[in-house]
Amino acid sequence: MFRHFSTVAGRIRTASVSRAVSTFAARSTASTMSSKIASGSLMVAAVIQAFALNSETMLTSCESLPVYGKPGTNQERTFLAIKPDGVQRGLIGDIITRFEKRGYKLVGLKMVWPTEEMAKSHYADLKKKPFFPGLVKFFSSGPIVCMCWEGKDIIKQGRQMLGETQPLASKPGSIRGDFSIDLGRNICHGSDSPEAAEHELKMWFPEGANDWTKTVDSSVYE
Ligand code: RTP
Ligand code: MG
Fold first, then answer.
1. Residue-wise pLDDT tens digits, 30-64
2. Which 3 state secondary structure label does DSSP give 112?
3. I need a surface site. Which of 75, 82, 137, 143 has the fewest CB within 10 A?
4. Ligand 1 — pocket residues by CB below 6 A?
5. Which residue's CA lies nearest to atom 3 of ligand 1?
6. Is the pTM of this model over 0.85?
7. 138 C-alpha to center of ligand 2: Å?
8. Cα 146 vs. chain centroid, distance in angstroms?
9. Is 189 helix (H, G, I), strand (E, B) or coil?
10. pLDDT digit string, tens, across residues 123-135
11. How far is the CA of 86 from the centre of ligand 2 (A)?
């Protein structure tokens, strides 16, 4: 459906731009400066059409990936979240920067205030744990930052960059090791497996992600 829409939109844009430019070109030929203006208009038309076609190509090339990407490739994806404590402490920028600087690609980003139902669903695998009610309450106590990150081995690397569940056991240099102390205030979440990434990305990004091309990838990947 999106492919159809973007293709149609691209064509409409191309067609209306051509029509406007050719109308302008036709009027111009009646004037004394006709040939110069007409050739200039044609050049403009060609540039605009090329841009419109390119936009169409970019849009239509964006829909082949599911939101959870392709595990095991450079297009593997994971769900990372900055929990309410990380947001309160002003760590959004620091956490995003670490992944950006490493070379990973951000393809989804939004702030969401989870309901208790959303928190329960997100942590459903822990529902029998004694700490589950407190975890749900805390996770839904304020907005979180939802992110979809893409790149080689991002699920495992993301977890390593976060650190251990227990901040006191996390190495300096990891996010939890650098920024947190208590288990229930460990500021960030990361999918722990491809199955979890698929489940969580479908849940938090039902609208899909942004399949943009990162031009510096040739300087990140060999
Ligand atoms: P997360 O899902 O939030 O990324 O954390 P995780 O995989 O490292 O750890 P997980 O076992 O999934 O636990 C989820 C969160 O629950 C809190 N927790 N409390 N009181 C306890 O024993 C306990 N154990 C875990 C932590 O905040 C943990 O991040
Ligand atoms: Mg977990």
1. 444 444 444 555 555 544 454 444 444 444 444 57
2. strand
3. 137
4. 126, 131, 135, 165, 183-184, 186, 189-190, 192
5. 189
6. no
7. 15
8. 9
9. strand
10. 999 999 999 999 9
11. 16
